[in-house]
Amino acid sequence: MKIAAVTAVVALIVREFVFANYIVYGQSMMPTIKDGERIIVNKIDYEWREPERFDLIIFHADEESDYIKRIIGLPGDDIYYENDALYVNGEEVEEDFLEETRNENGPEIFTDDFTLQDLTDELVVPEDHFFVMGDNRKNSIDSRQIGFVPEEEIVGKANMAFWPPQSIRFFY
Fold first, then answer.
1. Residue 2 annotated as catalytic
2. Is residue 71 exposed (0-12), middle (13-18) or buried (19+ Cβ within 10 Å)?
3. Which of 50, 67, 104, 135 has CB atoms 3.0–4.6 Å from 61's, for a disulfide?
4. Catalytic one of 43, 69, 143, 157
5. Which domains does the chain have, with CATH numbers?
6. Is 4Fe-4S tagged as a keyword (predicted)?
């Protein structure tokens, strides 16, 4: 009985404070994460390090919904897209994770041109906030529509997909 109680308490603590599993709904992160896949989210990763560009994060989008998106802009960054290329602080930054989708898209523009100021009236990403985008740029509600994500709304970093079993993989 004691072993069962201790196991239940440890499992509850791990589930509440360390890891969580989420089901991804929608196509905004395709092909990286598909609709219906289950992922593991590390809730404490950011206790030890700052979020990094291109991390996949879960955040509270509103009181009812959590979203998964990719960090594109960090606090203090000036970001813009021009001719389907990401520029951060005036330097072009490669988005290797988009290559598969760009190849499928052909010559069509994958990410429409924008500046941070056009979308948000800000010149740079504010302190303690992030600019996020889905990998399926044509079908994603992200910072281009909802604005910056406050750091306190981040639940954690997506570490791996575990369901369906044939799609088990880690995210880096």
1. no
2. buried
3. 67
4. 69
5. 2-170 (2.10.109.10)
6. no
